[in-house]
Amino acid sequence: MAITGSLSEFSLPEIFQFLDQGQKTGILTIRDPQDLRTGKPFLRYIWLHGGRVVAAGDRLDNRGLVQLIEQRGWISDRLRPDVERLISENVPLGLNLKALGILQPDQLKLLFSIQVLRQVCALFQIETGQFRFEAKAELPKSEMTGLSLPATETTLMGLRSLKDWKALQSKLPEANSTLFKLIVGEPQLRLENLENQVWQYANGTTNLKKIAEKLGISIAKLQQIAFRLIVVGLVEEVPDIDMGMPSAESDHAEVNQSINNSDRPEISNSFLQSLVGFLQHKV
After folding, report:
1. What CATH number was assigned to the domain covering residues 177-238?
2. Whole-structure pTM over 0.70, yes or no?
3. Domain range annotation of the chain
4. What is the pLDDT of residues 237-261, one digit of tens each?
5. Name one Pfam family in it (predicted).
């Protein structure tokens, strides 16, 4: 079974959240024929098992992970035959190299960070393109360090590492918006100190400007933190909307006259249909 779509319709965090909650196993392919940043084609593969990201790369020849290891000089000529044997046998490469004493746990963690989180960060820079998830795809064990992260937590960690937010600037919450918690109790995701403090202020009444002032950080940094909490489903942005409501001191007769004005425009059927569709989608 394959699921396909456009990144303009479904954002990467939404896709990751779906794969995480559905505990999906397979390969997610992100493809953009012409990356707007570079003018060159963009291609990434993300492998998941049970909703957890186990590996990532830009190739399908089972040589991505071993290339990372070789670049760091962690494989001697004497050990190379053992490594090639493991690749040909298609067994979990990282765990087997650890068992042989070739790699240490800290080295595996570093490899996973470079292989997965760096690739995920690159995905957040893609503004257009297509995605495809194939549930029956075989997992390349020779690309696996043996470590994994839930897809939603991968999103969170990838955004923490993001240096250039230009591609996401238009998606950041407004400075006058407030945040509202979507879950009861403490979040299951591991939050950093500032993320947890912003989470505590998600009361639906304190806007982002005031939160930034209370925490002593820039509004830009606060917006990025808020965006991270939003895309992993912990909070929701509540826009600051001026409803034009009359004050308590307004003249009641004038208000009633405005309400009963027979010249007010009728709501079109097309608008009502769009609204019903939107509400059904949200539910």
Report:
1. 1.10.10.10
2. yes
3. 2-166, 177-238, 253-282
4. 999 865 444 444 444 444 444 444 4
5. DUF4388
